[in-house]
Amino acid sequence: MRRARPGDDRGQVSVELLGLTPLILVALAVVWQFVLIGYTYALAANAADKGARAGTATRTGGEGACAAAAKKDLPGAWQGGADITCGAQGGLFTARIGLKVPVLFPGVADFPWGTVTGSAGAAEEEGT
Predict the structure, then answer these.
(1) Which parts of 63-126 fold into alpha helices (H)?
(2) Where in the chain are the domains?
(3) Predicted structure pTM score
(4) Which of 7, 41, 111, 113 is at 20 to 30 A from 91, Cα to Cα?
(5) Sign of the torsion formed by the C-alpha atoms of 90, 65, 52 and 43
(6) Distance CA 38, CA 43 (A)
(7) Are 49 and 120 in contact (CB under 8 A)?
């Protein structure tokens, strides 16, 4: 069996990788959290747009249709804490959606502060 010489650097890469692994995992978690924040903004904007358009429909429109349409396409983890506000104001039907941002895994826990909001408006349709 051969003895290692003083100053031999065999195994150095393994030791460095082992030391950097926690840093790499934290960086991946931070990137994933930013992806979830962006996805929540996209969900809120899309739900508000769909709600506002549904609220303007002549026969089936209104606040109930707005809220139902806004909530319909939201994934289950975002539906529970959704704050949906719909209303008509001066010929414009508006929808405002507030969603909580999940922490790392949707459906497990949400950030306790603030919500992501999306809002949209659509001109009310004239009755024919």
Answers:
(1) 63-72, 76-79
(2) 12-123
(3) 0.77
(4) 41
(5) positive
(6) 9
(7) yes
pLDDT tens for each residue of 65-115: 888 888 888 888 888 788 888 888 877 888 999 998 888 888 778 777 778
Residue whose token pair is 């919500």: 115
Cα four-point dihedral sign 122, 123, 127, 128: negative
* Residue % of the chain over a pLDDT of 70: 87
DSSP at 82: -
Residue 41 carries which side chain, given as an amino acid letter? Answer: Y
Tokens in use for 14? 């393994």
Instruction: Give 8: exposed, middle or buried? Use CB within 10 Å, 0-12, 13-18, 19+.
Output: exposed
8 A C-beta contact, residue 91 and residue 106:
no
